Amino acid sequence: MSGIECFVGGIALLGPGLPGWAASQAVLSGSEPWQDTPVTIPPPAMLAPVERRRTSLVVRLALAVSAEAVGDTGLEAEGLDTVFASSNGDGAVVGAILDALAISEGAVSPTQFHNSVHNAAAGYWGIGARSTRPSISLGCHRDSFPMGLLHAASQVAGRGVPVLFCAYDAPLPEPLAPLHPTDFPFAMACVLTPERLPCSRARLTLQYVPTADDAVDPPSAWEEMERGNPAARSLPLLAALAAGRARTVALPLLDGGRLDIEVSP
Fold first, then answer.
1. 10 Å Cβ neighbour count for 173?
2. Which CATH architecture has domain 4-200?
3. DSSP code for 171
4. Which residue has the higher pLDDT, 179 or 155?
């Protein structure tokens, strides 16, 4: 199909029973059963101790998969444009700030304040990678993953540069949780390039279809997890990449549309 083309290199993920790309490929491809195990988020080694102590769970989650993805490519982190996508942002930090403001003489922590912005993860990445490359942080409710991927691929095709793409989300605290239920932490990252490199795993061709009717993919084996976290909507694509076979993944995007992603090994 015609559309936006790019190549996907380093791939990373972190979620329940999915502790990284290398350890999860057999499960994603269906050759081994999935087992629900807790998400363990490592501290961000790319940050100095003083910055590391200031990071929140969401930032650590995003940095963990981003570092893994870039480390799998051999590319320099400081040379990559970045696109970070999240539906909730740092809900725990925002919730703590709102709690503080709701009481008399409530004081907002300066650390919490600067962690509350939607581009906090991108900012910490820039510090750790010593990068001054362009960076976009976006949110699109339940569609943050497909919209972020489309934006990143467009940037690769339009500017001819490699782009690190990261989608991540974590549960919201009460009383925000019922407004956008998110059941568990999940994040994925990949490096998209304009040409095939030794690290490239597949070519992606993306096309947005404004009127999808009922042409989106049927429920996948990961349907329950996809419902539990917006970033986990990446699982059908990750499963296709793990299988190493040509196929097209169709994801709902915006009102009545879809994003077709053709995967070619």
1. 14
2. 3-Layer(aba) Sandwich (3.40)
3. P
4. 155
How many C-beta atoms lie closer than 10 Å to residue 97's C-beta? 18
Could you please report the per-residue DSSP string of 182-219?
--S-EEEEEEEESS--TT--EEEEEEEES--TT-SPPP
d(CA 157, CA 159): 6
pLDDT digits (tens, 9 = 90+) for 6-56: 999 999 999 999 999 999 999 999 999 999 999 999 999 999 999 999 999
Q: Mind listing the pLDDT tens digit for each residue in 192-248?
A: 999 999 999 999 999 999 976 655 566 677 999 999 999 999 999 999 999 999 999
Question: What is the structure's pLDDT at 106?
Answer: 74
Name residue 224's beta-bridge partners: none
Residue with tokens 């029973």: 17
Q: What is the pLDDT of residues 132-144, one digit of tens each?
A: 999 999 999 999 9
Which helix (H) or strand (E) segment holds residue 115: the answer is: helix 110-115
pLDDT number for residue 215: 59
Helices 21-28/235-243 angle, 10° precision: 90
Question: Using an 8 Å Cβ cutoff, are 185 and 230 in contact?
Answer: no
Which residue from 4, 5, 19 is spatially nearest to 188, judged by alpha carbons?
19
The full set of domain ranges for the chain reads: 4-200
- What is the SS3 assignment for 164? strand
- Cβ-contact 12, 65 below 8 angstroms: yes
Q: Round to whole Å and give the CA distance between 147 and 58.
A: 20
Residue length of the chain: 265
pLDDT of residue 139: 97
